[in-house]
Amino acid sequence: MKDLVSIVMATYKQAKFLNTALLSCFMQTHQPIEVIVVPVRGDTETERVLYEFPFPIKIVWSEKADYVHQRNLGIKEAQGTYITLADSDDAYLPNKVESEVSIAKRENALIVYSGFFITDEKLNIKQVLIPPDFSRERLLSSCIITDLCLVHRSIYEEFGLFNESYGEVAFYNHWLKVAEKYPDKIKRNPIPTFLYRTHPEQMHRTLNKQIQLLMRQKVKHESLTRKPL
Q1: H-helix or E-strand containing 8?
Q2: DSSP H or E stretch at residue 221
């Protein structure tokens, strides 16, 4: 039997996109999967969509709209051998999970990251981004690993959950820590695996970009000065 893969989706005020995002998870060619959705209490439109959705999902309610915190709540509930994140305004391509699990198995990888298509609000493709092969030096230069990568659950058991005080840089901080210890266990998927929808209401657009830039510089410095694990 194939390994269970957990898909964790944080969502807040994205009800008009949510059905598409959820359906893309259930259209995966890899099975079995479990889909864990972490909405925010009081988001009534999202609640309506979730309770009307025809396929089985696990709902974990968050008391606050903080997508790093919400993702952590979902990861805590995940039962899969592998865990991957999903955004409620984006869409997986059908081979997303299967292609990444195949690479993880073949190359004994703990993290597999992929490229993606950038689209407009209606999912019309505008651009494709294919990241380079992994090296720690490239990761220090730029966050080439998306937060929608496939992660073996042992990574969360060893390194813990995302540091919520870091905002969206929490994911970059996590990948840097893993890269310090397991640089040969991070692999690239050469094909794009999801559609990244751009629109004014994206969850991360509420974050202060100057603060996030300073935080990114901070985690780079920490990685460069940390003693080897």
Answers
A1: strand 5-10
A2: helix 209-225
